[in-house]
Amino acid sequence: MGAGQERALRQRIKSVEATKKITRAMELIAASQISKAQSRIATSKPYQHAISQALAEISAELGYGNNSLMGDIENPAKVLILAIVSDRGLCGGYNNTILRTTEKVYRNYIDKGAEVVLTTVGKKAQGYFKFRNIPVENSHIGMTDKPKFADAMEVGASFMAPILEGGLEDINIKAEIISTRFKSPGTQIAERFQLFPIPEDEPDLEEAKSEIRALPEVEPEAPILLKELLPQYIETAIFAALLEASASEHTARQRAMSAATENAEELITTYIREMNRVRQEAITTEIMEIVGGAEALKNSN
């Protein structure tokens, strides 16, 4: 019985050690991707700021709040929601946080009588919303690991089609993105932010406003130019969200795999102690049998 138990424990230890090697490798890969993702976020900031600066200058020419592309809509007839999660799992609660937030926002708008069009990025969203009978209008996969600007253009074209193809006149549509904001390697937060109409308190736009020193002369006219810049602003905002979601995903996976590796080490230690206990019991039993046999032989003589 002892030998059988020891053999089974050895097999368990071997299996956990193999798992530990995998989780450790995944942890190191994710850790190497974090710095690259941070670098890509930093690289994209100047262009994003330039677009915001252009919008701020044109909006100053028009007068903030005096055009249909900026501000807020209290009771929109139609809401576009873009949810960004990952294609793969093994990243802790990263996906669940965004998916549950998206579901809550979706149902709140439905309860208010709005038409909601849901677009998702990431394979993990497909099964989640299918199971909950929530229709997904457009689903994009294969771009969450290392997103490219072409991916943002693809997502933006399908996600914002009802707005960009609608003439932008007296439009009663709101667009929101729900994703994870990368603050630092230790801090990532689930964020829901308005993409359209462009909020007047949008952080990049607020920063750009403070840099305006004189109203510029623009050509073509400001309303036309604003509509021309809007698709570029949307694509840039989506690209920024994809980059930050990617960095957050790698960070969440690194933490999850680190915890899995530590758990594997603890489990191996537990199995080794149990195996040593079983082995000691077997040795003790054998010694007692030898002593008992010796005593019996002595008494028989």
What does this structure look like?
- It is a single chain.
- The protein has one domain: ATP synthase, F1 complex, gamma subunit (Pyruvate Kinase, Chain: A, domain 1), CATH 3.40.1380.
- It has helices spanning 2-62, 94-111, 124-131, 149-159, 161-164, 203-210, 222-300, and strands at 78-84, 115-121, 138-140, 173-184, 187-196.
- 63% of the residues lie in helices and 13% in strands.
- It is built from seven helices and five strands.
What share of residues is helical?
55-70%
Instruction: Give the overall shape.
Output: elongated
Largest sheet: 5 strands, mixed
Oligomer: single chain
Instruction: Give me the count of strands.
Output: 5
| Mean pLDDT value | 82
Q: What is the terminal separation in angstroms?
A: 33 Å
In the predicted model, the low-confidence regions spanning at least 5 consecutive residues are none
Topology overview:
Elements: H1 2-62, E1 78-84, H2 94-111, E2 115-121, H3 124-131, E3 138-140, H4 149-159, H5 161-164, E4 173-184, E5 187-196, H6 203-210, H7 222-300
Parallel strand pairs: 1-2, 1-4, 2-3
Antiparallel strand pairs: 4-5
Helix pairs in contact: 1-6, 1-7, 4-7
Describe the structure using short key phrases.
Pyruvate Kinase, Chain: A, domain 1, alpha/beta, 301 residues
